[in-house]
Fold these 2 entries.
Entry 1:
Amino acid sequence: MILNIVMSGIDHTVADVSRRERFALSQDDQRGLFRSAKENPDILGLIVLSTCNRTELYLSLRDGVKLDPFTVAFPGESAGEYRTLSGREAFWHLAALACGIQSRIYGEDQILTQVKHAVAFAREQRGTDNILEVFFRAAISAAKRIRTEFRLQTGDASAAAAALAILNRHSGGRRILVIGNGEVGRRTAQTLTEAGYRVTMTLRQYRHGAVSIPARVSAVEYDSRYEVLEQFDGVVSATASPHCTISAQRLMQCPRIPSIYIDLAMPRDIEPEVGLLPCVTLYDIDQVADGAAREQSRRDTLERIEPFIERGYEELMKWELGRARSLEREQKTHFPLFIDSTGKTVLVVGGGAIAARRVASLSRFSFDIHVVAPEAKEEILRLAERGRVLFEQRPFEEADLEDAFMAVAATDSREVNHRVAVLARHKGIYASIADRRDECSFYFPAIAENDKVTAGICGDGVAHQNVAAAAKKIREVLNEAIEDRQP
């Protein structure tokens, strides 16, 4: 596969609001996903798109790797609950999604901003890679061209506009409480105010100038929402909170409550039981969007925008072809770098034959060498007796990596070696992992030297004999140079 990008997602087309709630991801949930992804050497990048109508995970994977993104985020969930796309199909889906025609509310213009925010958040978490960034950039560019070329909506097709349409159908008064002061909440408050409603927004901490409030919108503390409910005719809730903002039990304790409730959140802000209360009407996000869906327009538009998405995909493939050609020219990914070893600590985990060879090479430089292993070869023990190496006869512990500049994992345990690799990556420590080249952040070289010259030789991780032969020849040349200098 040229571009090994795969997407798993669930949205309003395959699941109702109650099923989508199971897959909703808060920002804290997303941060945890990024941390987990960084621990998996097969995952090069991750972008999470989580909105009120969808949860989608995009992965950039190593060549040849097959992985379902939802198995990473939601272990145990059935594949029948969501869709998985890869390569060209994933690009088409993302481009069509970003332009608004795949949205629950046809043609809505918030989704493009949400896609951009998803990329920015992944970048902030240092969770994406160049391939995934270019993939999203190409899809976003195609979506922008589509929105410029076609009129996808009449008026403002957004959740805020749909909420306004519902309120206009009810004759229950003009005083509305908007719960939530995020992007959707502010947009809803502004839309309703411009339509003549008297709007109050909740703020968790109200400090003048500290938050953005639309013009002519009042504010009340979030914790006081139940106390002030009797002042309003309707409630619109649009928070990113994983907890309910309005419960049926609390409403039953109020002397007077509004008659209409509109829930624009995912997961839901308002308990479904609220809709069972007398003289109360509750709309969730799916019901809000029903009146705005235009399936025929959606199908017609898909046919018309096909050339724009195809053009975006061709541009992406052109970029990928250039990248592939660079790789074919054997452009090197690792640069030889010589550092001052004075005062730098190297942790060697393991005491077998490979570890002994690594320690022997390191001991020719001014590193502080710390070896941790239940048992060690005689060569390591002799270096420890001479004070050249600090040897501790015990299993590896995470604290061993404190103050280490570099780590070498050379045990016969895959679990221990992998643990060293993961911890070193998180701590920003260079690591050489003896049994997994793809977990290495540097490659341990064969060394050839004399008193004037030091050379390091690395190969492709396969042709070890070529490296050994090259090192032998270089050593011969260096030895001849020494002999030529002798009187």
Note: The mean pLDDT is 85.
Entry 2:
Amino acid sequence: MSAFILGACATVAVQSSATTQADATGSGPLEDATERPLSSTPGSDAAESPATVLALSEAPTATSPSGAATVTHLARGQNAYLGLLRMAGGAEVPLHRDPTEEFIHVLEGEGIVTIDGAEYPVSPGTTIYMPANAEVGFRGGPEALVALQVFAGPGPADKYEAWEPAK
């Protein structure tokens, strides 16, 4: 299975032409994730929790409305959010804008990221920077993807509150 680090920005659902929740989650440590809402992610109230140490197996995971992606909430502070995103093969993130900067690092898998009309092929080891308010989107290859995502300003991660806890 391949993986890719990608931000499913905006509240639009990640889409795939032929996908199931099992395709999106695959196998591995994310299957053991505890079901907790993003608001209970350790570090979600940085004023009360200045430091967080969290095992991946204990991090809460949520599934997109389409079932084509999951996000594991790793950390959230006053100035940033860190999540691990898995997407089914062929999944897409439609063009959208987020009010904060976003960073993505590709672990495995391939795809095409669009930033302000320019398309960039991405593969393992690629790091992506998306400026605040840039128009961005993604088209995944045929393999499932895993995405590690950082929002510099945690607000855009609020969209994940609408995702269902993973089972």
Note: The longest strand covers residues 69-76.
